[in-house]
Amino acid sequence: MIVLRRLPPTLTAEQFMETVSPLPEHDYFRFYKADNSLGQFAFSRAYINIPNRKDLLIFTEKFEGYVFIDGKGNEYYCSVEYAPSQRKPKTVKERKDPK
Amino acid sequence: PENREIEKKIRPPLHEYLRRILFRDLNKITIEKVLRQMRKFDWFEPTFREYAIKCLTAPYYVKYNSIHCLASILAGLAHFYDDIAIDVLDNVLDDIRSCLESNVPRYNQRRLCMVKYLGEMYNYRVVDSIIIFRTLYLLITFGVTLDNAIMSEVDPPDHLFRIRLVCTLLETCGQYFDRGTSKKKLDCFLLYFQRYFYFKKEHPQWNTNTYPFPIAVEHVFDETLITLRPKFILAGSYTKACEEVEAMEKEYVTILAQNEIKTPTTIDTKDNLPP
């Protein structure tokens, strides 16, 4: 699983998808909005799991250093990394909480 | 000057309630009750979920000594919604990393809380030891040069905060790395950590008379090692610490080489270092 970091803080998941499309076949995607309490160091992130190695390499190469531009014209250099935690939610239906 | 009125953030009642139970009511005695309340929320409602994840990623709003309670709540929720814990963990790990990159003193308190929270997550089995070790190594390697000629921008010579971060993480969950592979992993890490510590301590900028290496940092380091490994003998100097690391690496390379003869696989000799 990889993570794309340093994305514009105002970016939304939809805009992100538009920019990176066509996204190769993937079984996991999660987008996190920036945590604004970090001020100027707040960035959005996206986690993607691309099982096909070849697709993964092509995708990584394409987006490492890729420049995202936010609504105000600021430039953000995206970095693609191996995600520190490789866990993703189990695909089985979530346990129902009886509450 | 006129009294500036501080604008109070107006939050929806549900968010206010969530903040109240997590950041004010939560303590050792109320854990059960708070968890019951937390489970009653509608976790499939996206706006609430997003806000709750944000709150669960903010251990710095909880009293420092109650951070373990927040980890306990998270573990309780993870039992029913495992994606919550995954989200929070991703956020915490990225926060630790982002703060290493920006290295702004303003966030120091927050950073301490974050690593403590991560350690408590290990104690409550929300994360496994791999993540803990990966974070430990990240803390002593990210942007570190181990060369006085090349100054590290994100870890300048007078920046000793990472020693505190490592010690806090080890203080929180290090005592459980006392058997099996995690014990060995910790033994290896401590040698690298020791090398990092002496590298920092022996930087030429320190001067015993005019600008000594802070004794408090030395104490934190000593205490952490004594608590975890009472028999650990400190190297005493950077050169010696480097020798110890080299000897250990050599030993592992030999073991790996032997294993390779027995079962030919493509093991990278650097595999004893977590990525």
Span between termini of chain A = 33 Å
Average pLDDT level of chain B: 91
Q: What is the string of helix and strand elements of chain A?
A: EHEEHEEE
Catalogue the unreliable spans of chain A: none
Largest sheet of chain B: none
Strand order in space, largest sheet of chain A: 2-3-1-6
How much of the polypeptide of chain A forms β-strand, as a percent range? 25-35%
Any key phrases for this structure?
heterodimer, A: 99 residues, alpha+beta, 4-stranded antiparallel sheet, two-stranded antiparallel sheet, 6 strands, globular, B: 275 residues, mainly alpha, 62% helix, disordered C terminus
What does this structure look like?
The complex is a heterodimer of chains A (99) and B (275). Helices cover 19% and strands 27% of the residues of chain A. Chain A has two helices and six strands. Chain A has helices at residues 13-20, 53-63; strands at 2-7, 28-32, 44-49, 67-69, 75-77, 79-82. In chain A, strand 4 and strand 5 (75-77) form a beta hairpin. The longest helix of chain A is centred in the middle third of the chain and has 11 residues, at 53-63. Chain A is globular and about 40 Å long. Chain B is an all-alpha fold and 275 residues long. Chain B contains eleven helices and no strands. Chain B is globular, with a radius of gyration of 22 Å.
